[in-house]
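C-alpha cells please, single chain.
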Amino acid sequence: MKSEEHKTEKKPFDPKTILTIFLVATAFVGLATGFSDSIFANYFKEAYDVNAAQRGFIEIPRELPGVLSLLFLAGLAYFGNLRNAILAQLFSAFGLVVLGLTRPSYAVMLIFLFIFSTGIHMYIPLGDSIGLSLAQKMSMGRVMGQINSMRMAFIMIAGILTFIGFRAGWFSFELPVWVFIISAFCFFMVGVLLFVQRQMSRNLSESPVGRQTKFVFRKEYARYYLICAVFGGRKQIMFVYSPWVLIDLLDFKADTISILAVVGSLIGIFFMPVVGRWIDGFGIRKVMTAEALAFIAVYIAYGFLSRWVNNNPVVLTGIGMMLVYILNIVDRMSAQFYMVRSIYMRSIALTPEDVTPSLTLGMAIDHVVAIIGSYLCGLVWFEWGPEFVFLIAGALSLINLIAAQGIKKNY
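Here you go.
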C-alpha cells in the first residue's frame, strides 16, 4: 500500500464554525467597547476638566486615525484582513493599558488616545469586511444583524458592570483606572480569537484571510462616499455633543451615562436583527429613508431641549428628564444603522476585492468630516449655543434622506 494512502488530508472547517468564532470575538469587542467608549467623556471631564471647546478639540486625535487608517491599511494590505485585525486589537489594548496605569499630561494623554483610537478605527472596516465575507453565502442582512446584535448584547453587559462598578465605588478615574485595564484585556482576547479564526480559515477557498486591493476610488461609488460624509458629521454630534448635554449642562456622572448606554444596548440587541430583516425584506433605500426621517425629528427635538436647558439652569424632573433619556437612547440607535452603509457598499461593489478598501475610504471620508465638524461644532456651541449644533445634525440627516432616494430598489 502506498504511503500516500496513510496521509490524512486536512479537512477545512465548516464556515458556520468560523462564524461562531467570529461571533465570540465580536462579544469581546462589545465588552471592550462597553468598558471604555461610553465613559471617555466623563474621563475627559473628571480627569482633565475640559470645556466644550476643548472637548471638540480632543476629537481631532481621537478621530484622525479614521483618516490615517486608509494609509495604514493600504500599507498593510499584503498581510490580509485577519492579521491586520489582530494588530488593531493590540494597538487598542496598549493605548488603554497606558491610560489605565498612568495619568499623563493632557498632551501626552492625547498621544495614547490616538494609539487606542488607531486600533479602533483600523478594525471598523476590517470587522465589517470579515463579517460580510462570512455572510456572503447566507442572508446577508440577517447574519450582519446577528453579528451586530451580539456586539450590542455585550456592550450592554459591560455597561451594567460599569454602572455597578462606579456606583459601588469599585471603579473610578483615580489610578489605576481598572475599567480601562479590563477593557484592554478584552481587546487582547479579541486578538487571540481572531488568530484562532485565521488558523481555521486557511483551508477555505473563500476566506477573509486573503490579500486585499490597496486603494480604490471609483465614480460608481460616489453616492456611498456622500452618505459616509454625511454620516461623519452627524455621528460626531451624536457621540460628542448629545452626551455633552447630559454631562456639561445636566451634570450627569459616569454611572448614569453607563446605564443609558445599557438601555440603548438592550434595545439594540433586538433592534439590530430587525434592521437586518428590514434590509433583506424592504431593501436599503427604504431603510435608509426611514432612518433619515426619524433622526431629522430627533435632532430638532434635541435642539429645542438643549436650548431650554441651557437657558434655564434648573434641575429637570418628570417629563423633562424622561424626554432627555428617550432622546439620548434613540440618538444612540443612529450608530446601529452603520451596517446599512456597509451592506450597501458590498451590494454595489464591482468586485469583492473592492469591499475592504472602499469601506476604509468611506471611513476616511467620514472621519475627515467628523474632525472638521467636531471642532467647528465646539465653536458653534461655545459662541451661539447647543441648539445650533443639533440643527446642523438635522440638516445633515436631510441630505442623507435626499441621497437615499437615488439608491436602486434592489440592493
